[in-house]
Specification:
The chain is an alpha+beta fold. It has three domains: 62 residues, no CATH class; 161 residues, Hypothetical Protein Ta0175, Chain: A, domain 2 (Alpha-Beta Complex), CATH 3.90.1070; 30 residues. The strands form three sheets. Strands 3, 9, 10, 11 and 12 form a five-stranded mixed beta sheet that branches. A five-stranded mixed beta sheet has the order 4-6-5-8-7, covered by helices on one side. Helix 6 links the parallel strand 11 and strand 12. The longest helix has 16 residues. It is globular and about 70 Å long. InterPro entries: DNA-dir_RNA_pol_su2, RNA_pol_Rpb2_3, RNA_pol_Rpb2_4, RNA_pol_Rpb2_5. Its EC number is 2.7.7.6.
């Protein structure tokens, strides 16, 4: 799970070696060699996944059935405000109601009709909807949060799709595996089931730019209370080891995803260090 940037080791350029914002959760911020290769040889984070690639044609056919106008029939004068649709970098058509199209394609991905490793990026300013299904994209899993625009759903706006019942079933399967007990196949509940049910979603660096991700489910609850008009007091306790929280931005419209755990930004070697978020003993 090691990556290599093909740049000459003897170069004195600092920029390719520095940590970038888009590396969050995808590349370990600590695990890199010292010396000439520092910052050029990187290691993937714990829950990273590299896409293997799926064909883009079924997605194009699905969007045509949802009202996409193919490029050969597009007349710019008739619909100048239409949103351009790209599949793996190729302009395939336009659509006049991109909000509904993006929602439909996202639901098909969460319902496992199209592959979970397909990325959907809607750029509202440039009026573009980009879809990537090619191989070699580094992705990471996140919990899905209900944004409030999904039709026919039992979830309220700001609710995690993950429920306590799902966590209990995961725990029971894990404990049975540890004890060597037999569980029938239909009663087993694993990570792949979370993906199939649309509770966990894989996002790449580009789709993450269009997502609003909160750090913990606790932050999500505080956000919901503040949005409902409740005054949540700041916890200024004396606990020296408490987590530093970022101030909530009052302009935050909605959350779309939630981090699984903050420690998932680390790679394999960094994650076995005890208390990596504390100072070293001098």
């Amino acid at each position: 799970r090691r990556t290599n940037t093909p740049i000459g080791r003897d170069g004195k350029l600092a920029k390719p070696r520095q940590l970038h914002n888009t590396h969050w959760g995808l590349v370990c911020p600590a695990e890199t060699p010292e010396g000439q290769a520092c910052g050029l040889v990187k290691n993937l984070s714990l829950m990273c996944y590299v896409s293997v690639g799926t064909p883009g044609e079924p997605i194009i056919d699905f969007m045509i059935s949802r009202g996409m106008e193919v490029l050969e029939e597009y007349e710019q004068l008739q619909s100048p405000q239409a949103t351009k649709i790209f599949v793996n970098g190729v302009w395939v058509g336009v659509h006049n109601d991109p909000t509904e199209l993006v929602r439909d394609v996202r639901q098909t991905r969460r319902n496992n009709i199209i592959s979970s490793e397909v990325s959907l990026i809607r750029d509202i300013r440039d009026r573009e909807f980009k879809i990537f299904s090619d191989a070699g994209r580094v992705m990471r899993p996140l919990f899905v949060v209900e944004p409030g625009d999904t039709p026919s759903t039992a979830h309220q706006k700001g609710d995690l799709y993950l429920t306590k019942n799902m966590v209990q079933k995961l725990r029971e399967t894990h404990l049975a595996d540890q004890e060597g007990a037999f569980i029938p196949e239909e009663q087993r509940y694993e990570w792949s089931d979370l993906q199939k049910e649309g509770v966990v979603e894989l996002l790449d660096a580009e789709e993450e730019e269009t997502a609003m991700i909160c750090m913990t489910p606790e932050d999500l609850e505080i956000y919901k209370l503040k949005k409902a008009g409740y005054d949540v007091p700041e916890d200024n306790g004396d606990d020296m080891n408490k987590r530093l929280k970022t101030k909530m931005n009052p302009g935050t419209h909605t959350y779309t995803h939630c981090e699984i755990h903050p420690s998932m930004i680390l790679g394999i070697c960094a994650s076995i260090i005890p208390f990596p978020d504390h100072n070293q003993v001098s």
